[in-house]
Amino acid sequence: MATKDKNTITQTFPVLGMTCASCASSAESIVQHQQGVVNASVNFATGNLTVDYLSDITNAEKLQKAVQEVGYDLLIEDETKQQETLEAIQEKKFKELKTKTTWAIILSLPVVVIGMFLMEMPFGNEIMWLFSTPVVFYFGKDFFANAWKQAKHRSANMDTLVALSTGVAYLFSVFNLVFAGFLHRRGLHAHVYFEAAAVIIAFILLGKLLEEKAKGSTSSAIKKLMGLQPKTVIVIQANGTEKQTTIEAVNVGDVILVKPGEKIAVDGMVISGSSYVDESMLSGEPVPVLKKENEKVFAGTINQKGSFQFKAVKVGKETMLAQIIKMVQDAQGSKAPVQKLVDKIAGIFVPVVIGIAILTFILWFFLGGDNGTVQGLLAAVTVLVIACPCALGLATPTAIMVGVGKGAENGILIKDAESLELAKKVDTIILDKTGTITEGRPQVTGIQWLNNDDTAKDILLSIEKQSEHPLAEAIVKHLDGNTATQISNFHSFTGKGARADHHDTTYFVGNKKLLAENGISISEQLLQQAEAWSQQTKTVIWFSDGKQALSVIAISDNIKETSVAAIKEMQEMGIDLYMLTGDNEATAKAIAEQTGINHYKAEVLPQHKADFVKKLQQQGKTVAMVGDGINDSTALATADVSIAMGKGSDIAMEVAKMTIISSDLSKIPQAIKLSKQTVATIKQNLFWAFIYNLIGIPIAAGILYPINGFLLNPMIAGAAMALSSVSVVSNSLRLKWKK
Q: Catalytic pick from 416, 432, 557, 628?
């Protein structure tokens, strides 16, 4: 195993030709042992290999060659074509499987009818031989071909079990038919089991067909997300003409026209026009958002009734939608910790089953009396047929795929399976204040003018337009609609405010200290109002001319509409909540009281947030950190489960394992419920997969025969094996409809 360095490349390739969980284990093992590979993981449910490799030692072509040697293949086309090619291959494979299954069932039916009810009819055995041969060796040839490839590499998988069981049943039947006299002379009845061989192939093909169909349903979330991208766009040329072009041809800086009802193709910034845009597919929020000049728009969202032009800012893989699709794909392909144990079991499962089958035959041969050889062969065949590593292999990944997909549809992006599995254990959540509990955007909540005279508001607007202070932006937004006027001699005082001249009069905007330093008087009326706002933990800004204060302005960061209800819901779930903020004690206390949070810390530095997370972890708590800014990124990286608010910084989203696209706190209890449901589904799947094998294999071996004479028919075993995989996938799909 190589160690990770800067030359390490991480890539995901679809693996072609896998038929079961132990195939995934085999493909993973061969890649893992290639020189230059740091880490490799094959997910049977998604059919993908995720590999970290050193680009100066190996490459995709070398990995493909290694995988081909064990009977599989890698699709190593570039990502844009990869999905289309893979879908075409899968569609072709599904059609071929459907045809094979249909014909295998049609040809098996007369064999079953004769074998069960018309055994004494003339040439019955010969007719069964005739019908079962194409089923076993034509429609079932892939089982034998794959088993041979595995055998060459001293490996075994599900195909090995099917090939051995049907091959033994078929050859034994041919021997009994051709050499019937040989057995009769020894007092044995020459039974044939063509129906078992044919029906096993038919049932397993049917099981695979149903499994493929169900697995297709588990990845519907990705297909939905991909369907959000339009194929063509209208680009405005430099001369003002409109030109329809493909989405691949759009470059950063292109101006794109969006008409009513159209999907937005790439991420960008509105430069003219305005409209309401439905962003529900990204955020899960149903209410359309107004987009006007200088507002961001995102790929995949749907324009409503207006039309506008926007400049492309991010295209191709850089768009938010492309990042979401990539994140969901990676998460669906990642392995939950429990899956690693299941993979180990699947890897040794097939050799163990072959061992049990051989032991079954030996015991029957010596202890089974006159018919010991025949019964032993049949029991061994039944053991090989009923054993199913597929149910085990599908138990975890199918549940993870559905869980991650369901999260994406609800505006909860889950980056990996581990955080989905861990979220259910969270007992402590740390919330950042600004942008998480509050809007994160300071807004003017009140403005009082001296004697209600607001004639100087144009001057206030002009000064604040030149200021770079974040609070100045809130005042500019509040006074939007007024016209700025000419000012001169603008000067900014760090930490205090600004000064400017207008028609020989000096004006000041800033805190009380700035006014005091310049000997400006404040009327009792404005002073009382400022005092009242300060007690409500609002930030107070003063505006004055050279002699007296003209107005006082209150600015605050409002609590989000959904925060209070979400906090209450999390507390009702038995979760301890802590609020950490860099803001002052008075503001932190007021926000904590208004939202019902019992524990809070004010004036916390970014590094101290991470230290606080560690402190709680040392107390044995499973900690989730929720934040939106660069200052939260260290704490997010330290927490057991990290949740970023989607409207925050890119760094926070990069670090976090979950992202709430709408920045709505009420999505966090939803994510925890989803985690509980997914883990419960995984446990159910694993329980049924293990129980099935624990009960099925001994019964197939004939453990009940000495007690009540019961021997399991190989055909019934084939049907049960097929059903076990289908039942696991179907149970995972139930997750979709859970509330």
A: 432
